Q: What sequence folds into this?
């Protein structure tokens, strides 16, 4: 009973390592969820964003002991959903992706925003994505993509 | 579990706190950046007693494990606190960060703590032996030094329900989101029958702890707005003489100028 049990992308898993380990490191190294990127390890870039029980969190700032009993979703799981398909299409059509490093976090931040607020204003989108840094696009294309996904994916959120 | 304990009730948390050398873990957003090695965490995120916001006649009581996002959605939390909390970092950090963690980290940059200083908040600390109330300014003994026993936990923050309606809040950071305060300021003003009853001013991120000079504030109490106006320059001078600031990410001179400008704006806002 020493293990930390949680659900990862719908599958039950048990982690036998330290409760003080970073969720970010465990997701990448133990479970090979390499969509979860390490940008800063300080909660300042959002590249490691995941959904825990539906809430957006920076996995670099979560210790393993805090996920006991929780449901963790990364891009590896989210990409199987219709919502992802709507976001994927919108990001592609607007060329909102350049190097791609921030995108898994951006998309999960968009999902967290839209699941609370299906029809956000531009300001609300910018606020929802404000913890996710992108060094390529200058954000406008990403904001427009989330706006388009919200419109075209009407009813999904 | 290796290197950690998960408490599911406050009583269980206090038992573990008393019998083991543990670091209380609420939201993790500061602890995980610090990344201390060789420690054991006491996870408090499942302790329901610490996750409530309640209100009585006098106080709004915010549990130590309440997140900033939860506080923003609660009708009992004063607008002044909401304004400060809404500008902390970004959504993902506000989803994790807690009031207890902001206090327990011991930093003078903690944005919710500034509001607790300016509003004369009290903290309820608990241990297996019982509980005690402490004024927030007494809780901070110095940089990263807190009046918290090794068997104690912060249970809740008690914010006064009344008197926080008229305020100024300013956070000066390097960018809009994800900004650590370079200077933060909160002022609370109140007057009755034309006489000033409160003119509290607190300065964050500029010294080892949040700064407040209650003896200077007192000189405005009981004055009319016109009387206060007449003594404004002397009042500001008193602050300028007392305020000894440290250098941080920005110079002490910059911090002092910004503090004095924000204090002047606060007085001006309320007609002084």
A:
């Amino acid at each position: 009973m020493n293990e930390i049990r949680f659900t990862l992308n719908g599958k039950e898993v048990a982690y036998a390592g330290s409760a003080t380990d970073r969720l970010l490191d465990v997701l990448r190294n133990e479970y090979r969820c390499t969509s979860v990127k390490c940008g800063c390890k300080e909660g300042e870039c959002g590249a490691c964003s995941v959904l825990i029980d539906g809430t957006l969190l920076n996995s670099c700032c979560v210790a393993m002991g805090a996920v006991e009993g929780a449901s963790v979703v990364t891009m590896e799981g989210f990409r199987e959903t219709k919502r992802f398909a709507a976001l994927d299409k919108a990001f592609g059509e607007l060329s909102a992706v350049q190097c791609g490093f921030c995108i898994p976090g951006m998309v999960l931040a968009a999902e967290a925003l839209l699941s609370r607020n299906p029809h956000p204003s531009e300001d609300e989108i910018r606020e929802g994505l404000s913890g996710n840094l992108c060094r390529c696009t200058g954000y406008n294309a990403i904001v427009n993509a989330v706006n388009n996904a919200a419109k075209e994916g009407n009813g999904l959120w | 579990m290796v290197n950690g304990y998960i408490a599911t009730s406050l009583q269980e948390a206090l038992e573990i706190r008393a019998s083991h050398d543990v670091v209380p873990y609420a939201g993790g957003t500061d602890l995980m950046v610090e990344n201390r090695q060789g420690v054991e965490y006491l996870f408090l995120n499942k302790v329901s007693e610490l996750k409530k916001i309640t209100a009585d006649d006098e106080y709004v009581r915010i549990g130590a494990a309440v997140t900033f996002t939860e506080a923003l959605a609660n009708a009992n939390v004063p607008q002044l606190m909401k304004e400060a909390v809404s500008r902390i970092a970004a959504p993902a950090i506000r989803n994790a960060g807690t009031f207890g963690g902001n206090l327990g980290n011991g930093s003078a940059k903690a944005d919710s703590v500034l509001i607790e200083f300016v509003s004369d908040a009290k903290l309820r600390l608990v241990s297996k032996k019982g509980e005690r109330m402490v004024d927030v300014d007494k809780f901070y003994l110095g940089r990263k030094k807190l009046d918290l026993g090794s068997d104690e936990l912060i249970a809740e923050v008690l914010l006064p329900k009344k008197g926080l309606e008229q305020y100024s809040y300013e956070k000066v950071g390097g960018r809009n989101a994800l900004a650590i305060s370079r200077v933060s300021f909160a002022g609370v003003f109140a007057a009755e029958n034309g006489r000033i009853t409160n003119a509290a001013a607190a300065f964050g991120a500029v010294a080892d702890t949040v700064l407040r000079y209650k003896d200077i504030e007192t000189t405005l109490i009981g004055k009319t707005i016109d009387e206060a106006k007449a003594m404004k320059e002397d009042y500001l001078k008193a602050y300028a003489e007392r305020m000894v600031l440290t250098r941080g990410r920005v110079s002490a001179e910059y911090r002092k100028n910004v503090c004095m400008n924000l204090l002047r704006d606060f007085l001006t806002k309320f007609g002084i």
Chain B has two domains: 49-160, 167-269. Chain B touches chain A at residues 1-6, 25, 27-29, 31-33, 35, 39-41, 43, 45-46, 69, 89-93, 95-96, 176-178 (CB under 8 Å). The CA atoms of residues 36 and 222 of chain B lie 50 Å apart. Chain B is about 35% helix and 25% strand.
